[in-house]
Amino acid sequence: MSPIRELSEDMKTAMVTGATGALGRAVVDMLLRIRFKVVVHDSNLDALNEMVANLGEKATNDNLYPICFDATDPESVAAACKRIDSEFSTVYVLINNAGTHSQEPTNATSLAEWHRVFAANVDSAFLLSKELLPGMKQRKWGRIVNTCSLAAKTGGVTTGVSFATSKGALHSLTFALARECAKCNVTVNGVAPAYVRTAANESFPADMSSMLLKYIPVGRFCEPEEFAHTVEFLISPKAGFITGEIIDMNGGLVMD
Question: What is its EC number (predicted)?
């Protein structure tokens, strides 16, 4: 099967879940810059409206489709994808960026908390992929990129047991989907950042920030735009021979 080297205009539609966080916003900015039509999702309507307003003139009815739904609920996901396809455009690129954090150790993690974190970090990626993959396979082209985490490899340095374990499951989901979809020209990869410069990380106590920066060889946190640049590479038609990979972005904190 011959690889696709350039995308036609009708193929340049992407969906970003969890679009209002620092990583999601950076990816949306990148996609608009390279002239994609973008579906922006979040479960928080106020945050979604604020993000769209902040995009200003970059956002138009033709290139942006904001939608609020529960990405952990199968019926909500199915209804949203049907609406997107009929009202906006067919999605060829899926960025599974929706998720949540937890810093609780094992003895403080209830089963309800465990399920909440897994639903946000794993179920959402599974459900969106399950809904959109049949079309990608039928059209013989697609890209899925999952927001993974260094915590899947380390067990979490500053995160809790449910977060680290759920991200490990997301790594495995990435591998399984990549194996299943490769013959259809659909690639599935992950990007595993560590300590991105966000409002949450900048609120770390000074001693924690100093400790982290001491052990990160490059001596700084990751910029959201660096994450988006990696996503841009992975969704490129010329990255079609890369699938089932988790690209680490941790400044040398862990090397393998």
Answer: 1.1.1.100
